Amino acid sequence: MKNAIIILSLSLLLIGGCAKFQSQQATQTLSISPATSATVVDESINLKKKIAIGRFTNESRMANSFLNDGSDTKERLSRAATDMLTAKLAMTKRYVLIERQDDLAISNEQQISNIESYKIPADYLILGSISEFGRKTSGNVGLFDRTKKQTAYAKVTMRIVDTRTGMSIYGEEGSGEASSEVGTVMGMGSTAGYDESLTDKAIDAAIGSVIQNLINKLSHDPWRSYVLNMEGNEVYISGGEKQGIKKGDVFKVYLRGKQVINPQTKVPIELPGTEIATITITATIPGTELTELSSAVVINGSIPADQLSNIYISDK
Fold first, then answer.
1. Which end of the chain is more exposed for a tag (fewer CB within 10 A), N or C?
2. pLDDT for 168-178, tens place per residue?
3. Exposed, middle or buried: residue 3 (CB in 10 Å: 0-12, 13-18, 19+)?
4. pLDDT reported for residue 113
5. Three-class SS of residue 21?
């Protein structure tokens, strides 16, 4: 009788354990910081800015560890982060993306010296780095059950650089993590080896935590184009249909402001431009993102032909 009670008790424990057992859980991702900006982006804006994305650097201790010597871990994480950022920006359909990451191995400093020598065909350059990355495995071993949880954590830093001045106009840092858990009861259930996908998911979550703030900043700054040539009253400007320019659009023409040096920081600053004319688009000339043009006529004011390099077009 006593043996029967013991067997019955063990059976109930096993049944209860199996009832509570769950197979492998879906991967959990979490964007940790920063909080999304409350800035509202104007959905009516249809002029696309040209954005170049530089290859992410990998400054994390894990990627630079001697244990990774001879492996492509550092480079693979850099490529993955760059591709994720590019994909997220492309999904917004707000930008003309210039993918020249391999040519943009640019120093990750606050001011990029001699930026003109890079000949970046874009309004802004986004630089990023993986500043922290790590993984851990935890678990619990009970009398009848066993669990294993894998977690990956990443922190990214991104900056927007004005390609005209080489100055960093915005910076943001965000973190994210991803985890998965499996368990067994009396040897029944899922087992798991090293989950490589958690690495990419953690980086994706970190980038996702800052992407909206980057978009808000890029949307806040005015769109710009430049005068390429003049023939009488007819003006040719860079950009066309791919950037959202349409026949009949009206834009302001500005003469760039004087460049002065901040006596405290010794950093050059461009003063606000002076409005000198208004133009209206008469036709768009097809081409690639880098070669398309638009023709326009001056409807108000005048454009000095000897100052074309100091003139820009803006929607604001």
1. N
2. 888 899 998 88
3. exposed
4. 58
5. coil
Is the Cβ–Cβ distance between 292 and 270 less than 8 Å?
Answer: no
Question: What pTM does this model have?
Answer: 0.73
| pLDDT above 60 for 160 | yes
Residue predicted with more confidence, 12 or 232 = 232
Burial class from Cβ neighbours inside 10 Å (0-12, 13-18, 19+) for residue 91 reads: exposed
pLDDT tens digits, residue range 127-156? 888 988 888 777 665 555 667 788 889 999
CB neighbour burial string for 246-284, b if at least 16 within 10 angstroms, e if fewer: eeebebbbbbbeeeeeeeeeeeeeeeebeebbebebeeb
Question: Domains of the chain (ranges plus CATH)?
Answer: 22-220 (3.40.50), 224-314 (2.40.10.410)
Find out whether 172 and 132 touch, Cβ atoms under 8 Å.
Answer: no
| Phi, psi of 197, deg, nearest 5 | -65, -25
Q: Which residue has the tokens 């604001």?
A: 316
CA distance 232 to 229: 10
